[in-house]
């Protein structure tokens, strides 16, 4: 081996050792609080790509048994694309990173009493030994603690319509402002105020890029929202370089990569828009507030569209899982 290459290889080995030591030291602090599965732990240790997944979508976002089937399918897509899936959730007060099939079944079971866990909920979950699904914010926070740089979901929370009266702004946005994890999602649902959500992300200093040739920020069910993201990237390698550059500068902000729903599943139609409008109105009329708002609206939209929205939802998450895994693979090759 030429001398230069030899030195490079030693440097990389040192970098890998130092990263896993740092991770080990920080995980020591959380011993007994966070349990990383053997599969995820060894992938992290060896510098292989790992992709985090949220679980509020399982506990509060989809009906049974679609929630379980989708969770299993999404993990499979990530494996097929060369990464290790790490679904995050809390079971009896222990935060799990990487779940067994039985654990996924428990979470997906409507009979399990599950809390929706965002950043503010962790102290109660831990101190009272509770079970629940982590939101985008909750999952980002844990992913970062254990050293997982990429996280895949369907849609993130955002600024709600009617925010002037309710002040309802998802913690997902502030988490993106303070936690260096890349979130791959299909933008935000138009149950939210998409323009204000993008403004808020700008305020939080989050680098937002659409994935594809168009800067039009996707609106979950539809490929375009009419609101422009500041940037677009066209490949998993570009996404990995974006994340890597952010890390090189030591920025502690998240990155949002917005992947439009595949064309054949997109529903620009009036039907979903009308259902969203009706669901937002009935949430207000019924006095739904706080963390109940998003699950209430998601469920109502699904009922009103007779499952049409659920089908699109499942298709886009699987597509995001494919893209997220490819980004994870590219990133692990850049790092080592
Ligand atoms: N949007 C969806 N599906 C979801 C959620 C949002 O289309 O399942 C979930 C995610 O877990 C997200 C959370 O982090 O809802 C946001 O909730 P809130 O608006 O209460 O912050
Ligand atoms: Mn809220």
TrEMBL record:
One of its GO terms (biological process) is phosphate-containing compound metabolic process. The keyword Membrane does not apply. Keywords: Glycosidase, Hydrolase, Kinase, Lyase, Manganese, Metal-binding, Transferase. It comes from Sinanodonta woodiana (Chinese pond mussel). The chain holds residues 1 to 336 of 750 of the full protein. This is Carbohydrate kinase PfkB domain-containing protein. The keyword Transferase applies. One of its GO terms (molecular function) is metal ion binding.
């Amino acid at each position: 081996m030429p001398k230069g290459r030899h030195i490079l290889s030693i440097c990389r080995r040192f970098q890998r050792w130092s990263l896993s030591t740092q991770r080990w030291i920080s995980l020591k602090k959380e011993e007994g609080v966070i349990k990383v599965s053997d599969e995820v732990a060894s992938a992290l240790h060896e510098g292989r790509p790992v992709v985090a997944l949220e679980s509020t979508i399982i506990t509060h976002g989809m009906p049974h048994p679609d929630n379980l089937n989708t969770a299993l399918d999404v993990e499979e897509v990530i494996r097929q694309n060369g990464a290790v899936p790490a679904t995050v959730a809390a079971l009896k007060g222990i935060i799990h990173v990487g779940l067994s099939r039985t654990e996924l079944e428990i979470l997906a079971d409507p009979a399990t009493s599950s809390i929706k866990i965002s950043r503010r909920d962790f102290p109660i979950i831990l101190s009272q030994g509770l079970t629940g699904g982590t939101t985008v914010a909750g999952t980002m926070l844990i992913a970062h603690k254990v050293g997982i740089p990429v996280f895949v979901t369907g849609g993130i929370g955002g600024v709600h319509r009617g925010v002037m009266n309710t002040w309802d702004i998802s913690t997902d946005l502030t988490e993106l402002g303070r936690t260096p994890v890349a979130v791959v999602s299909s933008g935000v649902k138009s149950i939210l105020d998409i323009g204000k959500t993008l403004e808020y992300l700008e305020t939080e200093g989050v680098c937002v890029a659409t994935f594809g040739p168009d800067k039009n920020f996707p609106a979950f069910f539809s490929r375009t929202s009419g609101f422009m993201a500041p940037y677009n990237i066209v490949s998993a390698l570009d996404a990995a370089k974006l994340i890597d550059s952010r890390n090189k500068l030591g920025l502690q902000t998240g990155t949002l990569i917005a992947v439009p729903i595949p064309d054949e599943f997109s529903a620009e139609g009036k039907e979903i828009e009308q259902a969203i409008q009706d669901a937002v109105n009935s949430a207000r009329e019924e006095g739904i507030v706080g963390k109940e708002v998003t699950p209430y609206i998601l469920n109502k939209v699904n009922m009103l569209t007779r499952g049409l929205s659920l089908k699109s939802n499942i298709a886009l998450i699987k597509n995001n899982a494919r893209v997220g895994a490819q980004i994870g693979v590219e990133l692990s090759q850049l790092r080592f």
